[in-house]
Amino acid sequence: MKYCPNCGEALADEVSFCPECGTAVPSSEVTAAPAQATPAQAAPAEGSFNSEAAPEAKHAKKRSKVGPVIAIVLAVLLAACAVLYFTGLWKKLLPASRLKLGLGEKALVDRGLDELFSDDNRILTNTETKLSAELSVDLETDGGLFSEATYIKSLLDELKIGIDVDVSEGGSNMKLGAVYKGNPVLDATVTNEDGKIGFYVPQLDANYYTLTSEKFIEAFSDGEAPANGLDISFEPIDEAEYRREVNDLLKIIAGISTKENTEITKGFDAHLFDIKTTTKVDKYVITPKEEEIVNVINELADYLEKDGSKFGKGIAKLYEIVLAETSAYASASEDDEPLSENVFDYMREHAAEAAKDVVEANVSIEIYMIGNDVVSHRVHSDDGDLIVDAREENSVTRFYVSFVDDYGDTNVVTGTYDESDRSKAALNMRVLPGDSDEPTADLDIVFDLTKLNKLGLCPLNGSLKVADEEAAVFKVVENGEALDCSFRIIIPEEDADDVKGITVNASVKEGEGVQAPSGVTPTDLSDKSNEEIQEIIYTMTERLGDVLSGQLFGSMF
After folding, report:
1. Which of 210, 360, 367, 531 could be disulfide-bonded to 198 (CB atoms 3.0-4.6 Å)?
2. 388-442: pLDDT as tens digits
3. What pLDDT does residue 498 have?
């Protein structure tokens, strides 16, 4: 048995360092226990030097400082890490790396989701699933008393169209109704339940018809119906699922940035908010390679194809509609190869082609950060056909998108959003012909996001100019629990006869729901031939004109 010359701890013979104080203990060290230290020896006066200590002990103490220093350093590091973590200071000390970029991007998306789902001003609603609207049409005319326009205007002034929508049960049921001078003219119920579409128009046919969506498409398409049908329905938004999927997709898209293709410049002087001044930023320039783009597209396709992806289901439904409409034309054309049956297979098949186009256009992504905040996103190509610029100053977000279409026209979209004053959200879209800076079309919209109603709709107003002439004006104003909307189309002077404009008015409010027709036994057309289904629909269409003219004109005399 031997003992530590510094603290007296009993040690095993094979031990070289004291586990208690860290002092080195050579194998030649005295094995006898040291004498009990007196109080004066154990605690010398401040600044004093204990000359009674043995030379060997002094030497051992000198060599033993490494152990305590390591322990102290580790303790300080652990304490510092705890302070940094629990106070959040670690975010400000992150190096200019892709980790910091990823956290900044995630914070940006999370903030946007908070805006969408905030309890005070909810932009997306996951509770209200029913709405009701009433529409009317007004003709502005200066024609004579017996002019055709005046005659039509007298009819429209007494005609009201009602629309009720209910998506509360995972289906999408709708009821349409026309009332003239208080008398019902026509009503129709369209349902989408249990994988079948139903339609009931009693004025045209007393039967309530139902059939599968794929059968409906097959009957009216030269191509084949989608294999799994078209059960299109709207569902209430689940906030938790929405957030999870958005963040999952963000992680996949962020994979476009790799260590090899991302150039980082700290302290870059950038023109962000004022072209006359520069701002110090951390600049990230991402120039993806073909293989990296292909990998991201494939990962997106795999994720969206999963059964649990809400976005994937929506994309698949839209693709099936396109497929049903274009399959006949694509198969008939020698130049166009048939589209893939599955949208996600289509993504994978064309990933390499899309990646090649991006690389050939030398598309790059620039992201500027100040501290831990993303303040600017820029995407551009060398040929100038694509420019995207989104930037933030204080609480105001501005964005700019410019792209050249197939006709050589430049389409420019700009917008602003002020978090501190939500009423200042604005959008502008202009179409500039290739040989001029004068816009052929100019659309302006201003949103008042402070007054969202239960349906998640907000007041807005805007205008559309074509060749510098006002073509349309629209306005949505709050009226209690409803929103009153008006859309006015202005007829150009050279095209006007005695109609100067057309205004569509609508009042939208929370609805009570739509049910399938009660007391009527459905007639299932799913097993009928395409010709039989077409005959029923065409017969109803032919009768529609007779019913409307009889109800409208008959009520005038």
Report:
1. 210
2. 888 887 778 888 888 887 778 888 889 988 877 877 789 899 888 876 667 788 9
3. 80
Q: How many helices (H) and strands (E) does the chain have?
A: 12, 22
The pair of structure tokens assigned to 416 is 């602003």
Other C-beta atoms lying within 10 Å of the C-beta of residue 304: 21
What is the distance between the alpha carbons of residues 392 and 373, in angstroms, rounded to a whole number?
9
Last residue of a domain, one of 86, 119, 154: 86
Instruction: Specify the residue for token string 């005070």.
Output: 120
Does position 36 have pLDDT exceeding 70, yes or no?
no
Q: Summarize the confidence of residues 17-34 as an average pLDDT.
A: 50
Cα maximum dimension of the chain: 129
CA angle 509, 512, 517 (to 5 degrees): 130
Residue 163 vs residues 56, 135, 433, 554: alpha-carbon distances, Å: 99, 8, 39, 24
Compute φ and ψ for 488, nearest 5 degrees: -110, 120
Domain tally, the chain: 2
Which regions of 467-498 does DSSP assign to beta strands (E)? Answer: 469-479, 482-490
Which secondary-structure segment (H or E) carries 510?
strand 499-510
Q: DSSP class of residue 422?
A: G
Total Cβ atoms within 10 A of residue 41: 12
Global pTM value: 0.61
Give the integer Cα–Cα distance in Å for 423 and 421: 5
Model confidence at 94, pLDDT cuts 50, 70, 90, reads very low
415 and 429 Cβ atoms separated by less than 8 Å: no
Range of the domain at 440: 394-447
Give DSSP secondary structure letters for 229-298: ----------HHHHHHHHHHHHHHHHTT--TTTEEEEEEEEE--S-TTS-EEEEEEEE---HHHHHHHHH
Which amino acid, residue 341? E
d(CA 472, CA 373): 40
Phi, psi of 362 (to 5 degrees): 55, 50
* H helix or E strand, kind and range, residue 416: strand 410-418
pLDDT at 554 over 50: yes
The chain-wide mean pLDDT, for the chain, equals: 76
In a domain, 25, yes or no: yes
| CA–CA gap between residue 395 and residue 419 (Å, rounded) | 5
Burial of 104 (0-12, 13-18, 19+ CB in 10 A): buried
User: Tens of pLDDT along 145-200?
Assistant: 777 788 888 888 888 999 998 877 666 789 999 888 888 888 999 988 777 889 99
Following CA atoms 137, 143, 145, 149 in sequence, which dihedral angle do they give, to the nearest 10 degrees? -40
* Tokens 């933030």 sit on residue: 392
In a domain, 146, yes or no: no
Query: Which is it for strands 196-200 and 10-11: parallel, antiparallel or unpaired?
Result: unpaired
Q: Kindly give, in sequence order, each residue whose CB lies less than 8 Å from that of residue 466, ignoring residues fewer than 6 positions away.
A: 440, 441, 442
* Domain endpoint, select from 447, 466, 492: 447
Do 214 and 202 meet the contact criterion of CB atoms below 8 Å apart? Answer: no
Q: What element of type H or E holds 39? A: helix 39-42
Evaluate whether residue 423 is within a structural domain: yes
Please indicate, yes or no, if residue 63 is contained in any of the structural domains.
yes
